[in-house]
Write a structure and sequence with these properties.
single chain, 275 residues, mainly alpha, 2 domains, 8 helices, 79% helix
Length: 275
């Protein structure tokens, strides 16, 4: 009982970590960006392997999944003073699952689309969360509290405050611009306009294709009809010519026969075949 009470008291004793967060806010901005980038790399590789092709993950245009950075800093702030990894795993996984569900619900309602879907996993809730993902977030919480955030903070402490402040300002500015651009681009109005333009373009392409196909078919049919007509005309002309030649041959033969008969009549016995 005393251990549970001590754990609960420690859990909500956030003064030290909040003070560190405020004092080292520029470092926290950089840590947030680095962990968000690492989450993007992890999800992109995993989803690309599953899909069998490159799949860019994340809501932002840039290579970042902010939910990882937010989750890591959140569990570090809340659970940073707990020394038991198992407790960090349970509570961290629970907190990260709440963050993931809330984020997924907000994005779906705001942009009318799913940004991730766990429907293929057992015991999922609306496809937004599932036990398997919660376990991963639990392990991620342990890693963040005991390794990632403290180690990164120690490394960043090596650099001067001025350098860290400048880098943090640049990172924060880039994130702000990327967030605004992503919200505008992925917003319902822009999304619908893009879909409408794409649908309109598709209809125009289909209409142009049909018109072209009809024109080609009509041209081919006309050419075929002309070719048939020309062939029939040529056949008719050839037949007429053949008949004319045949008639001339017959007339010539008849004349030749008549001439031969006349000669025979005038010169009887002149031809050997008359004997």
């Amino acid at each position: 009982m005393s251990t549970m009470t001590e754990t609960l008291c420690t859990l909500f004793a956030l003064d030290r970590n909040i003070e560190l967060f405020v004092d080292y806010f520029p470092q926290m901005v950089i840590i947030f960006a680095l962990i968000s980038f690492g989450g993007w790399v992890y999800e992109t590789i995993y989803c690309s392997i599953v899909e069998g092709e490159f799949t860019k993950r994340g809501f932002l245009f840039g290579p970042s999944c902010p939910i990882y950075g937010i989750g890591a800093l959140a569990v570090w702030l809340v659970l940073g003073q707990i020394s038991n990894p198992f407790i960090v795993f349970i509570i961290g996984g629970f907190l990260a699952t709440i963050i993931e569900y809330s984020t997924g619900l907000f994005l779906e309602r705001r942009f009318k689309k799913k940004w991730w879907d766990y429907s293929m996993f057992k015991f999922n809730l609306h496809g937004r969360i599932c036990p398997q993902a919660s376990a991963v977030f639990g392990a991620f919480s342990v890693t963040s509290v005991f390794i990632l955030v403290p180690s990164m903070l120690d490394i960043l402490m090596i650099f001067s405050k001025h350098t860290i402040s400048v880098v943090a300002f640049i990172v924060a500015t880039l994130y702000f611009l990327d967030t605004v651009a992503s919200l505008l681009w992925n917003g319902p109005t822009t999304h619908h306009k893009v879909e409408a333009a794409a649908q309109d373009a598709s209809l125009k392409i289909e209409e142009a294709t049909q018109n072209a196909s009809q024109k080609v078919s009509a041209a081919a049919q006309s050419a075929s009809q002309k070719a048939n007509a020309a062939a029939q005309t040529a056949t008719l002309i050839a037949s007429q010519k053949a008949q004319e030649v045949s008639q001339k041959v017959q007339v010539t033969k008849q004349k030749l026969d008549n001439t031969t008969q006349k000669v025979k009549d005038r010169l009887p016995g002149s031809f050997p075949w008359d004997n």
